[in-house]
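How a chain folds remains the central question behind the approach discussed here. The record that follows shows the chain in one-letter code together with its fold in token form:
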Amino acid sequence: MTDFKNHPLYKAHTIDTAMNSLWDFYKKNFLVLFLMSAVLAFVMQYFSSLIDMKEIQSETDPLVMLEKMKVFLVPMLIISLVNLLLTTILQHYIIFKPIDSSTTIMTSVIRSFRYFLPYLIILIILSFAGAIAIVIGLLALVVGAVFAAMYIMTLYLFILPVMMTEGPDIGNTISRVFRLAHRGFWTNFGWVAAFIVILLVISLVLSGIILLPFAGSFFKTLFNPDAASEAVELAKNPLFIILSALANALTLPLMPIFATILYFNGKAKEERKEPEYNPAAEETRVRVEDLYAKPYSDDHPDNPEKK
């Protein structure tokens, strides 16, 4: 069995050390992670550009709109499956490369198929559970829905690291995910919430930068809803596709790195041993009763009242 204790991300973290470890790992492995993520981003951007949304935008009848959306069901399903497969490959490389020199991009591609089907099944189960949780959360207004979404995200981040380090058994993975996520739940939940906020800010900044060459078309669409079709055409622009893919490639490795940190943090804390009981130390320890004068019997020679 692989010993993951030598992994640079394996340790009990604080929020500061978690973010520092994420940044250090990202910088050290930037080139390979960026190239792998760029492939993923280009594939996703290309397939997304093949979906023509202009016909749907012109429709006002919801039933007709849903009917036309059926055409895009298969392409969107393919995009989702490709995204999950490439995410699995990226996660495998991040977990195994630092402790196994034989791990390469190609070995990660081959070995990732072992985890893909169980991962897909667990995600389907989690999707149903998540949908129910969010609906229940909506009953508690927006705050409840956001809490439910963050809770599902916390569970999701543990899935691949658990499968890749402890085996692809579906039942064991589900139980371990819940156990690790709920051990120090508020810490895990808070870290995930903070990470998502940081990731959103970075993504918004990068999105703003790549839109600079297309600022004229963007503002025209923003202030003139009738020109919304131009935004759809913008998404098919080769330059926009390239810039979007490169921007996405900068942020894609962050999620699997953070997921690895989250898992290893829980694993390290779980494996901490409690201090062994020492009877000698117990005898020499100061007790509360030692701070008070001891009572004496009436005939005791040291009894101060007898004197």
User: Anything to note?
Assistant: The CA atoms of residues 27 and 33 lie 10 Å apart. Confidence is low (pLDDT under 50) at residues 274-282.
